[in-house]
Hints:
Elements: H1 3-8, E1 12-13, E2 27-29, E3 31-34, E4 48-50, E5 53-55, E6 68-70, E7 73-75, E8 83-85, E9 88-95, E10 103-105, E11 108-115, E12 123-125, E13 128-130, E14 133-135, E15 147-148, E16 151-153, E17 156-157, H2 164-169, H3 190-195, H4 204-216, H5 224-239, H6 245-261, H7 265-292, E18 299-307, H8 313-328, E19 334-341, E20 344-355, H9 356-366, E21 370-375, E22 384-389, H10 407-412, H11 421-438, E23 442-447
Parallel strand pairs: 1-3, 2-4, 3-5, 4-6, 5-7, 6-9, 7-9, 8-10, 9-11, 10-12, 11-13, 11-14, 12-15, 13-16, 14-17, 21-23
Antiparallel strand pairs: 18-20, 18-23, 19-20, 21-22
Helix pairs in contact: 4-6, 4-11, 5-7, 6-7, 6-11, 8-11
Amino acid sequence: MTEANDLKVGRSPFPLHGDDKDYSGLDIHLAYLAGSNDLSHSFMNGANFVDSIFLKSALDQCEFAEAYIERTQFKHCDLSGSDLVRTKVVDTTFENCIFENGEWRESEFEQVTFISCDFTHTTINLCVFIDCVFSDGSVVGLNHRSVNYNVFTSTRLDELISSEYVLAQNFGLPGANSQLPVVRAGISTLGEACRLSDTSLFRVRDFIGGIEGEIGRQTVRTNKLVLEFIANITVALATTRRISPSSMLYVEQIFAQVAQAAISTADFQAAMNAVLKIRNSMYDLVMAIRTDLPSTEGYGRKITAYFEDTFSEDLGTDLADVLSWLFFQQPGQVTLTSIRHGSTLMEFLLSDSVPIMSLASTLGLIFTQASVIVSKTNQIKDGVKHIFARKASASKALVLTEPQPEKVPAILKSGTVLPELGPIRIAVERSGKTLITLDNRVEITIHP
């Protein structure tokens, strides 16, 4: 049996309309099309394509605005000049396909494989790629200035990106020249953070510093593309546990200030859309942190934190003040007793013992990238045991042990439905710079 006949099994011929090229809004399931030019210059807006096959067919100059494509295969197809705008593509393969001179905008691709595809002069803006694969020559077309403001999460490329411009204008791409320092001349930029986004040198503080610099330069009008790009990056970082809810609250405040200063309805809407997107992702992250917490008995009175980076004693003192407010709702209850450099080891003493569960849940909201350990003694180097470790991971479905709060109110009034965010929000308002500076990988030990 030939490949074409094999792919036909269980599928019906694609319902062609003859001279009528409008397939908008249709639901196409288990369809098959081979060796046809009948879909060239067609309208597919809002259409759904599921479990279908397109083989050696022309889909050039088509409009796929708001379309949905799932579990579908495109092999040896011409999609040149076609537009994918606010389209979602899931669990789909494109093999030996031509996308030349097309426009992709605000579309989402999840578990999509591109094999030997041609993206020459394809404009790709504000798209999100999650767990995708680009292989066998598909990467070449991404090294072009028409590829901007896209976010790549857990996506595999079989070649490194060589264009410094593309690395600086997109997030999550692996680059051949990306081992340069993230901060040049002491200034954090969004481009620098993007360029190092796929390396261990990426830091949340540099990303947020780049946001503040980018927003500060928008004195004439709001760049809505940049706002959406920043929001998409923040969501990607939350999904992979590379940013804490405290830092997300800080970013939310930046966008809220943009909304307050907006002089047009369009600018206000752009800023508020970014706020809602971040709150939505922050809600999911907080619920995941809740789920990850084990049931651990006991009390803690000492905390040690081992950071990869070097931080000053003043920063450690600031963190002690933050922890005092979070644990005791008053100042002076947590003291920085020791700090050692060469990386940084900070030791904190609490004025009274606090349940380990309370300590761990609070620390999880400001150090999402932390591995947390509980020691059986109050000696720093004595035997310890892991209770849980937070590592960068892909998004996963939440399995909750208690009723889940309604998500919509939580998004509209962040901190009301999720009570643990209330104190964190106050801490961010008081000491946001300290929290975003320390938001990185850290090993935390709780001692009795």
